[in-house]
Each structure stands twice: as C-alpha cells, then as structure tokens.
Write a structure and sequence with these properties.
single chain; mainly beta; Immunoglobulin-like; 10 strands; about 40% strand
C-alpha cells in the first residue's frame, strides 16, 4: 500500500518543516538514491507518500534525515562535532501489500522511530 514518513521536532514541539530527507533502496552493500526531498509545514513529504499503492516492493530501504542542518537552520547552538548529524534508518519491507509508515521523533540529542500506521 505504500511508504510514508514524517518528522516531529521534540525540542520545539512542532513538525520538522524544512528538514531534508533522502530515501534509498538497499541491495546488499549498495544503496541507490530513490528520492531527495524537503519536508512540508506538517513535517511530511510533499506530494504524498514516498511510494504509493502498488509501487513499494519487498526489500530493504534506508531513510536519511539531515537532523543537524535542520536544527542549525532553526538557530539551535550545536556542539562541534554534532551529537547527531544525519539519522539513518534502515528497515525492511516484508509485505508490499501493507502500508509502512516510518516516523521520526527527534531533538539534537535523541531520536525515536517505530512502524506506524
């Protein structure tokens, strides 16, 4: 049924509007860039899901969230080097007929994810 993501900024209690995200398809040791995008005002992907109905395939995927650049753009003073720079989430799709929602809750010092609905 597809693949979607969204990001919540837990430091400011708001969607992570403007965060850059990359989606990769992973085969063995090779990661192939599928999409690069900037999250909208709701912290979601503009234009809907990353993969729509019938487009998602069984396999391994990677989402990369540019966390440090996002918080720097918000004026947050970060240490050098940053504690979190880019958050990388590798996950598997075992049943392409299901919807996979991969949200990220993030601050400059922590993150959490889960398989949502």
């Amino acid at each position: 049924m597809g693949l979607s993501t969204h990001v919540l900024d837990t430091m400011h209690g708001s969607p992570a509007a403007g965060m850059q995200v990359e989606l990769y398809r992973v085969t063995g040791a090779t990661a192939t860039l599928v999409k690069r995008l900037v999250l909208n005002t709701d912290g979601r992907t503009p234009g809907g899901p990353l993969y729509g109905d019938g487009e998602l395939q069984v396999g391994t995927y990677r989402l990369v969230f540019d966390v440090a650049a996002y918080f720097q753009a918000k004026g947050v003073a970060l240490p050098h080097p940053n504690f979190l720079d880019r958050v990388t989430l590798d996950f598997g799709v075992a049943d392409a007929a299901q919807h996979y929602h991969v949200p990220l809750l993030v601050s400059p010092w922590s993150y959490s994810t889960y398989r949502g609905s």
